[in-house]
Amino acid sequence: MAPDQGRVAGLATHDHLRSSAGYARTLEHTIQLDPGASGRGHGRAPMAAVKDHARAGGGHPIFAGVSGKNPEGQAFHARLGHAQTAILPQVSRKSGRWMGLVLMQKFLT
Prior knowledge:
By secondary structure, this protein is α+β, with helices and mostly antiparallel strands. It is 20% helix and 46% strand. It has helices spanning 44-56, 71-79, and strands spanning 2-4, 7-16, 27-33, 61-67, 83-94, 97-107. It has a six-stranded mixed beta sheet with strand order 1-2-3-4-6-5. It is globular.
């Protein structure tokens, strides 16, 4: 969690990308920031904690699924060493429209 003036400004977590045994060391993470906290460095500490925890648990690659309409999120992950590996067009819906997903990957080990 990222505290900001006594409140939680962001959080991050991770889980397995898929449930089968072959993917046991392949992870996906999620990070969410309060809209007012974006661009103020609050995402770095939760991401570092998630990556440290994932690495300690034997994680090897970790993926981020970032909305194709979120260039700031893509830039954030790129600054943390993630590389774009795939674009999945029209895989989710938000506000009545189809949106793409950008997969970004980083190797932990």
